[in-house]
């Protein structure tokens, strides 16, 4: 009498008189392969943003986010919504286990006529799709920054948009130091004669000087 070979339950379901044998798919390395594919896609997305995206001036922002592993971003005057999304995605790529936070301070529906439309509800929907922790603060830059400062300690990057003029921030600089950590970066974005953005780093010394002018109402000079 010949012995019959029995397949193990891990490979095949037991035979029966009414049901044919069914091969069971084994997960094997699929989850790992999927993670590797996602990681590779994220890396190529970063390379595209940091080295080939337009406008070229935004590339330095993406490289800064990667280099400093920036996780907490406050943008005063949202200049470009697609760029904000890209900054969040780069931050998520290099944040490790840390959560990425993005806060946008803007006039939104109260923007001046002729400015790019930026409805608050739609802006939130687009930014929240990144799964970052998103907060939008409507209102004038100075009052909104003052109101948000205490809730935004340890901010890694403060980016001041090109439509925020010097007078908009008089009185707001007093609150900025409490938002910073020892490695924070504060950038002012201005448009050059060719329409391209130019980013200027604002030093702690300049911020401290402008903070002292809060009560005096002295005019704030643009960072050199």
Structure description:
- There is one protein chain.
- It is built from six helices and six strands.
- Strand 1 (72-76), helix 3 and strand 2 form a beta-alpha-beta unit.
- Helices cover 32% and strands 18% of the residues.
- The N and C termini lie far apart (95 Å).
- By secondary structure, it is of the alpha/beta class.
- It is globular and about 45 Å long.
Give a short summary of the structure.
The protein has helices spanning 30-52, 59-67, 81-94, 120-128, 141-148, 204-212, and strands spanning 72-76, 101-106, 133-138, 155-160, 180-191, 197-201.
Would you spell out the secondary-structure blueprint of this structure?
Blueprint: H1 30-52, H2 59-67, E1 72-76, H3 81-94, E2 101-106, H4 120-128, E3 133-138, H5 141-148, E4 155-160, E5 180-191, E6 197-201, H6 204-212
Parallel strand pairs: 1-2, 1-4, 2-3, 4-5
Antiparallel strand pairs: 5-6
Helix pairs in contact: 1-2, 1-3, 2-3
Unreliable parts: 7-15, 215-224
Which fold name fills CATH's third level, the topology?
Rossmann fold
* General shape: globular
Treating each run of at least 4 consecutive H or I residues as one helix, how many helices?
6
Let me know the largest β-sheet. 6 strands, mixed
Provide mean pLDDT, rounded: 84
Count of all domains: 1
Q: For the largest beta sheet, what order do the strands appear in spatially? A: 3-2-1-4-5-6
